Amino acid sequence: MTPPAAHPRFTDALRALGLDGLPTRGFPESTRTAAEAAAAIGCELSQICKSLIFAADGTPVLVLMDGASRVDVERVRAELGAGKVTRAAADVVRETTGYAIGGVPPFGHRTRTRVLADRSLLAHDVVWAAAGNPHVVFPMAPADLVRHADATLVDVRERAA
Fold this sequence. Notes:
Blueprint: H1 8-16, E1 25-26, H2 34-41, E2 48-56, E3 59-66, H3 73-80, E4 85-87, H4 90-97, E5 114-118, E6 127-133, E7 136-140, H5 142-148, E8 152-154
Parallel strand pairs: 2-6, 3-5, 5-8
Antiparallel strand pairs: 1-7, 2-3, 2-4, 6-7
C-alpha cells in the first residue's frame, strides 16, 4: 500500500519556498491530533506543532502552538489588540487555509493570514507539523518553521494554574 502523501497545495508551497527535498512521513493511522501524531512519530507531545485557526474580531488568525500546551485566547486577544477571540468554525478553517482541521500545515494556505507562533516551539531542535493531510507530517527546525510561516513569536500558551 502506498503511504499517504502531502496535500498538493502544501507540496506547491514547499516548492515555492525552495524546500522541494523536505521529507514528509505518511502514516496509515491518523495524525489528526497532537497525541496521535506524537504516538505515530515516536516523539514528545511538545514536539508537535499545532496549527490552530482563531477568529479575532471575525478575522482569521493562525496560532502555532506546541502539542503539549493550550492556547490562552485572552493572551491572543491582548497580543492582537482584538475585542474578542474565539476558535474558528471548521468551515472557516477550510475556507481560510484550504485544509481540514487535523491536517492544517503552518504555511501554504489558500489565503494569507496573520500568524502567531508561541515561543514554546523553540524549546526543541525539531518539531513536526501537518503537511495538509491528517495522515502526513513533516519535520523542521522551529526557527525555520516560524520564518517560513512568516510568524510573529509570542507568549500565548496557557500558564499552569
